[in-house]
Design goal:
55% of the residues lie in helices and 17% in strands. It is of the alpha+beta class and 805 residues long. Helix 8 runs parallel beside helix 11, helix 8 runs parallel beside helix 15 and helix 18 packs antiparallel against helix 24. It starts with a helix and ends with a helix. Belongs to the ABC-4 integral membrane protein family. It is found in: Cell membrane. One of its GO terms (molecular function) is transmembrane transporter activity.
Length: 805
């Protein structure tokens, strides 16, 4: 058997090339996703600011929930909060009482000088020892208007001792550089103030962000027992220093898992289609084996071993290619700010091994499924079966297709009831894929129906159109195999692109319609500047807006904090119930979506955890409709600003604002709630789209190359090359039309359900963009058909007809 397998692979290289390419790309994609997932699970961040402190104490950066399930089983869950948790400064006394030495407290707050590092933080000079920072020149800041800057910031902004510079922060001001450090941190700037000035600017009296010390972790943890403090040592200090990196790591788990799962489903579908087409092209060969007494089991073993051989080569090569692909993804995500520079990829043997194994298993399973019917036919019928296409689908395939179709309907109904992007996005992709699987299983029926409709206009064109109609009608199974990857590409591409435009368009529309102010200043306007704008001539109302994320239970909700004076002149939230005028520091307004999920209304109490981990119980005073544009929750500005890292935000101005203010469009208010990670989703899912595009080219090229003898017979019968190319052109056009309609229908069904759940309206599908998606598919199909056809017709017709299959 092995000799037959090796001989077959050796003499049918072109036929197995398509399967090889599909498996290699599948393994690479799955491996890259696995590395992202592994990084999310096991990745660590090296400390920078806290590198010189063996023990670091910070506030708890998680919200915890404990549930007692059946039989007394206790389940504990923890979710990261959005802002930095603060500690009482008195916690340092407890640390000292535990016998710790070199106890140093720190406050950290946003502060920037010009342009430079991605992050820029202000600190008190006493915390310089945590790194440690030492002075290259000058002295430590002593006066209120003195600062020390790190070496990189000084170099980037041309600063030296004695320079005067303006520092942007919650309370911007002019400072004199009293010193420059020897050190600089990677990716973050450090500006040191005097102790008193740093604590004033931080805006958290009696609180600190971290405590560094040298001592016993166990003793310090014991001294802090009963407080919200957490103790970190070793690599865990990096997580304490970079809470954003921890949130990115958690996001990487969900993204890597969702992307990997989607990639695996698409890979299985594509590989199965490729092997099905390969086996279909070899029906005559398999039929001859059955006629000379090969048993069904032997045929299945042969095809399985062929697939195993291809998988053993393509799987490891693809897995190896997945490693650089993962690094490419890392660089793209870092460029978009979705992945911090100090969170490195974890490259272990497990993702490549898992990806290679998955490719091998998918290859063997796909080959055996594809061979099921051909291997089971009776020897007497073998040769006839190879020449004729079965008139209808088998019962098993029909039942499977109907069951999958029912599953697609159920998923679509479920999708219509999901109101958050985190829940809806994976279901959206899964629904589109399941619709495509149903179309693939029922493909021959769909193809015959489509050809019956398209055959009438095709036959109106002499020779080329008539031949195309005849070929399409006689090859329903081959047509279905070709249509499936193109349908998948069209449906997935449209779904991915227009799910983003659907939420983005709804959010921008709501923000634009709900912003009554003539001018919007931002994005980082401090409270003092807003007060100056209020007093400016011609200004009738000013609303300060700060944004954050809170947790209700363990679920994230976007929240905006607004000043209530004059709110009716600057913002219309589309209040449905209650009165927004009752909003104050002890109350909250919720969107209709949040009210439905949380089962609250005016008069109810909503318990939540603010961004820095502070619990709050607020009375619901209003329910509003424009949640996508302004956030699911709205609180008093001062309440929210006291619990965020950066209390600066946008300012809505009614009247004539002072000149020189940085302005933004009203749609900017919707950026945080209208899919802030759209670019990340495009890059990640773009890989799957690229994979399906390769599958389209692969399948069409295999199908066209297999028709060399058919094209030769047509040429011997008097058909010219031009007429054959026209015939293939009409066939390609028919394939594109059928796949375009199926893909559009799949995307439309999925997007309509997605839009109903997310926006309450319909999908936003730019016509030109969708035509571009179909045109891209048409271009791929044309190239994948024309080039193999021209190569197939290079040989003389008589030689091609007599060539061995």
């Amino acid at each position: 058997m092995l000799e037959i397998v090796l001989s077959t692979v050796r003499h049918r290289k072109a036929g197995f090339a398509g399967a090889f390419v599909a498996l290699l790309c599948a393994a690479a994609l799955v491996c890259a996703c696995g590395i992202l997932l592994d990084t999310g699970l096991r990745g660590s961040v090296a400390p920078q600011r806290y590198a010189g402190a063996p023990v670091v104490v910070t506030g708890d950066q998680f919200v915890h929930q404990t549930k007692i399930k059946k039989k007394g089983k206790v389940k504990h869950k923890a979710k990261a909060i959005a802002e930095r948790a603060w500690l009482p400064a008195s916690a340092a006394d407890r640390v000292r009482a535990a016998g710790a030495r070199d106890v140093v407290t720190e406050v950290a707050f946003p502060a920037e000088i010009g342009s430079g590092a991605d992050e820029s933080w202000g600190h008190g000079w006493e915390s310089a020892a945590l790194t440690p920072f030492t002075l290259r020149e000058g002295r430590a800041p002593a006066a209120r208007d003195e600062i020390v800057v790190d070496a990189a910031t000084a170099r980037a902004n041309g600063l030296r001792v004695g320079s005067r510079v303006r520092v942007a922060s919650a309370e911007p001001g002019a400072y004199r550089v009293s010193g420059v450090t020897r050190q600089a941190l990677k990716g973050q700037a450090a500006i040191f103030f005097s102790t008193a000035e740093a604590r004033r600017l931080a805006g958290h009296p009696g609180m600190v962000t971290a405590i560094g010390a040298t001592g016993s972790k166990a003793a310090i943890a014991g001294a802090l027992r009963g407080t919200r403090a957490t103790v970190h040592t070793g690599a865990d200090r990096g997580r304490a220093e970079f809470p954003g990196a921890e949130r990115s790591r958690i996001k990487l788990i969900s993204m890597g898992g969702a992307l990997g799962g989607t990639a695996l489903l698409v890979a299985v579908l594509v590989v199965s289609g490729t092997f099905a087409l390969s086996v279909q092209q070899r029906q005559r060969e398999i039929a001859l084996l059955r006629a000379v007494a090969a048993t069904p089991r032997q045929v299945r073993r042969m095809l399985g071993q062929e697939a195993l051989l291809i998988g053993l080569v393509a799987g490891p090569l693809g897995a190896a290619a997945g490693v650089p692909l993962a690094f490419w993804l890392r660089d793209r995500f870092r460029g978009l700010g979705a992945l911090p520079a100090n969170l490195d990829l974890v490259v272990s043997p497990f993702p490549p091994v898992a990806a290679g194994t998955a490719a091998i298993v998918a290859a063997v399973a796909a080959a055996r499924v594809a061979a099921r019917r051909t291997a089971r036919i009776r020897p007497v019928e073998a040769l006839g079966d190879a020449a004729l296409t079965p008139p209808r689908l088998g019962a098993v395939r029909t039942i499977a297709g109907l069951l999958v179709l029912a599953g697609a309907v159920v998923l679509t109904v479920v999708l219509a009831g999901l109101h958050t992007e985190a829940a809806a996005s994976p279901v959206t992709m899964l629904a589109a894929i399941v619709w495509t699987v149903a179309a693939a299983l029922l493909g021959p029926v769909v193809a015959r129906a489509a050809v019956a409709v398209l055959g009438v206009p095709l036959r109106a064109f002499p020779v080329g159109g008539h031949l195309a109609a005849a070929n399409l009608g006689a090859g329903a199974r081959r047509l279905a195999s070709v249509i499936t990857p193109l349908t998948l590409m069209t449906g997935l591409t449209a779904t991915i692109l227009f799910a983003q435009t659907t939420t983005g368009h709804a959010a921008v529309r709501q923000a634009t319609e709900g912003t009554l102010a003539a001018h919007v200043a931002g994005p980082k306007i401090p409270h003092g500047t807003a007060e100056e704008i209020r007093r400016a001539p011609g200004v009738t109302a000013v609303t300060e807006v700060v944004r954050s994320t809170v947790r209700v239970g363990l679920q994230n909700y976007g929240v905006q904090g607004v000043t209530t004076a004059g709110l009716g002149a600057t913002m219309d939230l589309d209040v449905r119930r209650g009165d927004i005028k009752d909003l104050n520091a002890s109350s909250i307004a919720v969107s209709t979506t949040a009210a439905s999920r949380l089962h609250v209304g005016p008069g109810d109490t909503l318990r939540l955890t603010l961004g820095d981990g502070t619990p709050a119980a607020l009375k619901v005073v209003a329910v509003y409709g424009r949640g996508l544009g302004f956030g699911d929750l709205t609180t008093d500005h001062d309440l929210l600003a006291a619990h965020v890292d950066d209390p600066r935000g946008a300012v809505l101005i009614a009247g004539t604002p002072p000149k020189g203010l940085p302005t933004v469009s009203a749609a900017t208010l919707a950026q945080d709630t209208a899919s802030a990670n759209a670019e990340v989703n495009y890059i990640a899912m773009g890989l799957i789209i690229a994979f399906t595009a390769i599958a389209v080219v692969n399948t069409l090229a295999m199908s066209t190359a297999d028709r060399a003898r058919e094209l030769a017979v047509l040429r011997l019968a008097g058909t010219t090359r031009r007429q054959i190319m026209r015939m293939l052109g009409w066939e390609t056009l028919a394939v594109v039309l059928i796949a375009g309609l199926l893909g559009t229908g799949i995307a439309l069904a999925t997007l309509t359900a997605f839009a109903r759940g997310m926006t309450g309206g319909g999908p936003s599908v730019p016509p030109l963009a969708h035509l571009g998606v179909i045109a891209w598919g048409a271009l791929l199909a044309a190239v994948a058909t024309a080039l193999p056809a021209r190569l197939a017709m290079r040989a003389r017709p008589a030689d091609a007809v007599g060539a061995r299959e």
